[in-house]
């Protein structure tokens, strides 16, 4: 097959790819709660079938879902789409969930608006864009009548952004993944061979004080203020941790100052108080620690 002809066919299908991406961006799969996976699959499954792939919906069992410490709603349904032939098996992976909207947006994060050749929306790069591009590739293969060199299956998975028991883990345990894996994330970069990835640990830290009226704070103990020395120590620890370098390369993200992987240490969520004239009784701090393959989990803890 002439590559130039194939890429020219991809260009002809730009409108199709953009249309698919806009439709799936419009489905809010923010996690938590991650409640619209079925709606997204309803959009893409007919096209997988149209391009010759057989599909199967695989639901993560409730006992495994309960291991994830978040307020989740809806069925954790994953899609496995398989192009069956007698060729060696290869798997392509993409997750359907996106992180919640937090920072202010200048455009509708679920609008899929195209401006000056750029499409804006939550999940455009991470990683609904990959789903649309994979479908575009399957359409080109189907339209040109090409015979793939592999028996490809595409796995669209749940709950990657919170981990613990994401759909990919369950599908791997159930034998849906092949040993040859095309990880479709980071589509803004040139293809890379991944030889290692960071682990992730969530740390929940709670300080207990004594609630009282703000006008009589001498009667209480403010847990936010009591946490200040702890926060200072954590920031000192962060500085030391993030100086470590792995022996394996880092992903070539724009702005990354290192060519080797480094640990990450983040103070991400803090909850306390109900009203400004009440000294709170509790304060909860949630940290996220990414550890490199050169570190030992028990030592990190």
What is the tally of beta strands? 12
Strand order of the largest sheet: 1-2-6-3-7
* SS-derived structural category: alpha+beta
Estimate the helix proportion, in percent: 25-40%
Average predicted local confidence, pLDDT: 94
Unreliable spans are none
SSE order: HHHEHEEEEHEHEEEHEEEH
**Major β-sheet profile:** 5 strands, mixed
Proportion in β-strands: 15-25%
Shape: elongated
Alpha-carbon distance between the two ends: 53 Å
Our count of helices gives 8
* Radius of gyration of CA atoms, rounded to a whole number: 23 Å
What do these coordinates show?
- With about 300 residues, this protein is of the alpha+beta class.
- It is built from eight helices and twelve strands.
- The chain has helices at about 5-10, 15-25, 35-50, 60-65, 125-145, 165-175, 225-240, 295-300; strands at about 55-60, 75-80, 90-95, 115, 120, 150-155, 180-185, 200-210, 210-215, 265-270, 280, 280-290.
- It has a five-stranded mixed β-sheet, with helices on both faces.
- Helix 2 (about 15-25) packs across helix 5 (about 125-145).
- The termini are far apart.
- The model has no long low-confidence stretch (mean pLDDT about 95).
Please render the helix and strand layout as text:
Layout: H1 3-12, H2 14-25, H3 37-50, E1 54-59, H4 62-65, E2 77-82, E3 89-95, E4 113-115, E5 118-120, H5 124-144, E6 151-157, H6 167-173, E7 181-183, E8 199-208, E9 212-213, H7 223-241, E10 264-272, E11 278-279, E12 282-291, H8 297-300
Parallel strand pairs: 3-6, 3-7
Antiparallel strand pairs: 1-2, 2-6, 4-5, 8-12, 9-11, 10-12
């Amino acid at each position: 097959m002439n590559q130039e002809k194939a890429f020219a066919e991809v260009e002809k299908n730009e409108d199709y790819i953009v249309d698919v991406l806009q439709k799936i961006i419009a489905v809010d799969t923010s996690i938590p709660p991650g409640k619209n996976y079925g709606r997204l699959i309803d959009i893409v499954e007919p096209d997988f079938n149209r391009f010759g792939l057989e599909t199967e919906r695989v639901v993560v069992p409730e006992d495994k879902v309960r291991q994830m410490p978040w307020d989740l709603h809806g069925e954790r349904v994953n899609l496995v789409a398989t192009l069956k032939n007698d060729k060696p098996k290869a798997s392509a992976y993409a997750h359907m969930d996106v992180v919640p909207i937090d920072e202010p947006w200048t455009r509708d994060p679920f609008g899929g608006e195209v401006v000056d050749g750029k499409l804006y929306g939550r999940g455009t790069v991470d990683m609904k864009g990959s789903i649309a591009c994979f479908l575009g590739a399957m359409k080109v293969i189907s339209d040109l009548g090409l015979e793939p060199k592999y028996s490809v299956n595409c796995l669209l998975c749940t709950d990657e952004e919170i981990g613990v028991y994401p759909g990919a883990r369950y599908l791997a345990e159930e034998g849906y993944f092949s040993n040859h894996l095309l990880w479709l994330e980071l589509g803004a970069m040139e293809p890379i061979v991944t030889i290692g990835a960071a682990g992730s640990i969530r740390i929940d830290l709670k300080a207990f004080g004594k609630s009282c009226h703000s006008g009589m704070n001498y009667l209480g103990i403010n847990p936010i203020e009591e946490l200040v020395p702890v926060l200072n120590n954590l920031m000192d620890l962060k500085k030391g941790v993030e100086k470590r370098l792995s022996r394996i390369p880092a992903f070539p993200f724009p702005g990354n100052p290192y060519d080797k992987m480094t640990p990450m240490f983040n103070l991400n969520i803090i909850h306390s108080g109900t009203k400004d004239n009440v000294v709170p009784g509790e304060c909860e701090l949630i940290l996220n620690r990414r550890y490199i393959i050169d570190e030992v989990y028990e030592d990190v803890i």
